[in-house]
Amino acid sequence: MRFLLLIPGLACLFLGAVFLLVFRMSRNKQEEEEQRFTGRAWARLADTGSKSERDPDGRAHTVYFGIYEYDTADGQRVTSASEFCYGNEQDIPGTQGNMVKICYDPRKPTDYALPEEQAITLRIMPTVKKIGIWLMILGVLLTLAAAAVISGVINLEV
């Protein structure tokens, strides 16, 4: 029965590891994009698209994305949809008629990213990392406390 005391600590360790893994994967993607997306261009929002997604509770909701048109350095005109989605169509960069700066892969010009969308991810990821670290610390402390109780170093019986 005392082994049940390990569950909260192990759960925190597991969740902390998941948060840190998400942080690392995001950082790897960012570094890979910085190496690939060396082309620069100004793009206009040619259209918007929408799709239905389900939230963690299973409820469907609509998200919106931009479809941008731009010219590459070699003069090729490219139209491509963003992978980044918004809850409100008016939040899509370029909806007010402004041109937006993009970074694209010269070898595959349809692959691109908007620096302002990348900045959103960069602002969120340090928080994800901090949560992961704090969960790992809490998990270690809870696991050590449970181990002390199980081994008899700490006696919970009065």
Entry summary:
The protein has 158 residues and is of the alpha+beta class. It has helices at residues 6-36, 115-151; strands at residues 39-54, 60-71, 77-81, 100-105, 108-113.
Distinctive features:
158 residues, alpha+beta, five-stranded antiparallel sheet, 2 helices, 43% helix
Describe the structure.
This protein has helices at residues 6-36, 115-151; strands at 39-54, 60-71, 77-81, 100-105, 108-113. The protein has one domain. The longest helix has 37 residues, at 115-151. It contains 2 helices and 5 strands; from the N terminus they run H-E-E-E-E-E-H. It has 158 residues and is of the alpha+beta class. The model has no long low-confidence stretch (mean pLDDT 89). Strand 2 and strand 3 (77-81) form a beta hairpin. Helix 1 (6-36) packs antiparallel against helix 2. Strands 3-2-1-4-5 form a 5-stranded antiparallel beta sheet.
Name the overall outline. Answer: elongated
**Strand fraction:** 25-35%
Total individual domains: 1
Count of individual helical segments: 2
Rg = 23 Å
Estimate the helix proportion, in percent. 40-55%
Count of beta strands: 5
Tell me about the largest β-sheet.
5 strands, antiparallel
How are the strands of the biggest sheet laid out side by side? Answer: 3-2-1-4-5
Write down the overall mean pLDDT: 89
The H/E string reads: HEEEEEH
The span between the termini is 17 Å
Low-confidence spans: none
Give me the secondary-structure category: alpha+beta
